[in-house]
Amino acid sequence: MGHGGGGALSAELTRHLFLPAYGGETLAGLADSASVTLGGARLAFSTDSYVVRPLFFPGGSIGDLAVNGTVNDLAMSGAVPAYLSCAFILEEGTELSTVGRVAQALGAAARAADVTVVTGDTKVVDSGHGDGVYLNTAGIGLIPESVDIRPQRARPGDVVIVSGPIGQHGIAILSVREGLTFGTDVVSDTAPLAGLVQAMLAATPEIHVLRDPTRGGLAAALGEIATASDTGVVLDEGAVPVPDAVATACALLGLDPMYVANEGRLVAFVPRTHADAVLAAMRAHPQGGGAVVIGECVAEHPGMVVARTGLGGTRIVDPPLGEQLPRIC
Amino acid sequence: MKYIDEFQDPELARRLLDEIARTVTRPWAMMEVCGGQTHSIIRHGLDQLLPDTVELIHGPGCPVCVTPLAVIDKALEIASLPDVVFCSFGDMLRVPGSDRDLFRVKGDGGDVRVVYSPLDALRIAQRTPDKQVVFFGVGFETTAPAIAMTVHQAKRLGVRNLSLLVSHVRVPPAIEAVMRSPDCRVQAFLAAGHVCSVMGTSEYPALADTYRVPIVVTGFEPLDILEGIRRAVRQLERGEHHVENAYPRAVSAQGNPVALRVLREVFTTTDRTWRGIGTIPDSGWRLSDAYRDYDAEHRFDITGPAAAEPAVCRSGEVLQGLIKPHECAAFGIICTPRTPLGATMVSSEGACAAYYLYRRLSPPHTEEKASVD
């Protein structure tokens, strides 16, 4: 169970089981999407599967996630996403009207993200062997000349920017899955980020790293970047934007917002000299209005993320082991 | 909606820290009883900000940590049975028994479910009458009332397929056990606010008198904890030893009468074994005779053999405040959250896990010290 949580256990499964079995240098980069060359063109290529419960939640659905998740994985290498595939795995007995709603949501999300679904597949599994609908999407996009964005490129002196408030998707899902209410509705942040990335690249091509902090949250994303680049990250904990409702829900459940999933946010590592231009471009874009600097990349403690607490202490922000588990009390 | 920011204000924290520093004239050691407080202290770096003369000793108040290996093994055995739905709070799932944990049981096909409230287990029992639903009743006085209410409701509704595996513990006898230890260095206690929000403060004056120790009921946010420390230091400096309530927004002297009523109807006190510490008289809750039918240990024929704790693990001393986590030779070397030897490393509230997660940048010991026999 923990191996699917996007944390250290997921990473181990990939490094110690999948990579040795597959081989291949492109995989070894372990970015959100692979960069490949085909006929002279630099392509980004990515796939992801979606098993979210429930299928519809505040702010979106599995259909939106299946488009936005793959579009965002492509965008995190600076690519302009172009085409998607989509495979439906349906549990026997699922209402066709439900499948129809998912397909409609998927189509609408694809149009909003300016990508085209060009191929697909449908399979049906026995009743009891799925949660209604599972989706897999794969996508390809073109990486512009002069763009080189990957986790290994983080450098001491980069500033770390997050595009908006964190934790909304994970708490929105939890609120409907477990029937919990937190005094106010929390809506998923699911959104396509390719347009935001293009706006950032228009401000400067000097963007070193982009990552969308999905499963495992900000902590997992920053931990992966620190490890891949062998640098340290220092976060200003007070600067990390956490909506009040998310903070309250996390406090009630004993969760840390740094580890809660997002589906419409990105973190960027940018040279300090370009940070103002990137921030201005982000804030002018609908998906980046809440962009703020949350920390910096340092030479000290390579591979580790450290937070300066609001009160002046420090703490390590480790990658999560697996899923976060709510505390007893 | 703001419930948290007000209690993390850096300016107010600085003022409290300054006042503590001005008040202290000599070294003092105080114990925060609850693992939630330990977690907050380490997470916010409060111990780094206090004067060196104020030492915080981490107490035994982590319910995950103190649940004995034998009880974990019983849980694993019951959860593995066919036609059993085993319900637990989330943080018990990674706690290792002798040879596996609840995650492994789930992976092997056991029906193990994380619930957010014990009442969820009652609903599952009502929806699946052909299954035996077992709830893992772990925790201090904080969780006991909701679990007691669940059993009370089950009996009232005639739900017969629900039972509890009970391992509840009580805080005041643990404080007494700490004070009775010949190695005890604790000079004041920060009592757990959420425990007192249920139980009130009536159990504490006798302890404060007997052991001549200040007890300050304290909350969990940084300002709560600093205020608790400020009051404890003030008492120590004045040579006083009484009970103070520094968490009045949640705690009244009489506690929660509704919770207490159901607690006393469903549970009765009993001797309880604490993992790493041993048996503490009268330190636990068990189901009262009227609710004995709901006791999973009676309902299921389980014998689970419990292996001994690893000899190198010093979690018992950590739980009693006798050593800090990094003083254990195994800490961070062979004992990590991924490969825990003791429950203090497993639980997110455990002192060892808190030190590992938030503090291992400064290597706690040298290679020689790290060698483990």
TrEMBL record, chain A:
Residues 155-301 form the PurM-like C-terminal domain. CDD domains: HypE (cd02197). Residues 32-143 form the PurM-like N-terminal domain. Pfam families: AIRS, AIRS_C. It comes from the Bacteria. Belongs to the HypE family. This is Hydrogenase expression/formation protein HypE.
From TrEMBL, chain B:
Keywords: Iron, Metal-binding. InterPro entries: Hyd_form_HypD (IPR002780), HypD_1 (IPR042243), HypD_2_sf (IPR042244). The gene is hypD. This is Hydrogenase formation protein HypD. The lineage of its organism: Bacteria, Bacillati, Actinomycetota, Actinomycetes, Kitasatosporales. Belongs to the HypD family. It comes from Streptomyces luomodiensis. Pfam families: HypD. PANTHER family: HYDROGENASE MATURATION FACTOR HYPD, HYDROGENASE PROTEIN ASSEMBLY PROTEIN HYPD.
